[in-house]
Amino acid sequence: MYYNDETLIFYNGQFVKAKDASTSVYGQTLHYGNGVFEGIRSYKTSEGTKIFKAKEHYERLKFGAEVMDIEFKYSVEELTELTYELLERNNLADAYIRPIVVTGENMGVFSAKGSELIIQCWEWGKLMGDKLLKVKTSRFQRPNPKSCFVEAKVTGHYINSILASNEVKKAGYDEALLLDMNNNVAECSGANVFMEKEGVLYTPPRGHIMAGITRATVIELCQEEGIPVEEKHFTIDELKQADSAFFTGTAAEVVGLQSIDEYQFPQAWEQSHGSKLMKVYKEEVLGLRKHCLTN
Fold this sequence. Notes:
single chain; alpha+beta; D-amino Acid Aminotransferase, Chain A, domain 1; D-amino Acid Aminotransferase, Chain A, domain 2; 2 domains; 9-stranded mixed sheet; 7-stranded antiparallel sheet; 25% helix; 27% strand
């Protein structure tokens, strides 16, 4: 579903067919999960193909490489230009883009010398679909921020997401919600969470979550639309008293929640701030808003 015989990727400084690409079986990313990546979307707009928040995504990729001591020399401008060229070579406009920095060969537990940049893209609908989600609280916690750099998209960190997602899907749910080390709500397996209570939106603050770029965009949109929003810690019990809730993420965009564990959110989704923000966010990424945010 991700590529065919003609699909091109950027790899090792050149554009090559995905089916012909290979990497070392001794690489540290493969053995220990020491690599960094991004998830980015591009959209077909009236002004042509537009990569949404390319600068912010590639700045975060470079941040991840820096904190993980991974050698990485590309600039944000170079990465952006390469990505537009890759989209054009694959004749894609509405696409999901996956850049990943893969580390070199090293069986020791210290950062390897050298790295390789791979950029891939493919057509991909909303990760969690459009229906309201049935969510279950996972027994797995979001990693303690003192154990790693939680705001870096490090490949190995996503074992946590896989464990949580596998757990709840086996129980018949759509998605997992993870708490932090203090039993406050953190995020789901691959997106941030907002809850609505008495007309106000609340979302967990930075520090113990992946500080999502979609999350930041939604907060800005709230400010533009006059929707009250606060960043604060809240417990799972508080979430189970909310009127409605939704997730945000590049792959998921904005998606509403039907329930969390046994609790059914009482507010009609169509009347919630989340429903409005789902529409406003789509207008934003397509360049249809009169006062669009800086991309």
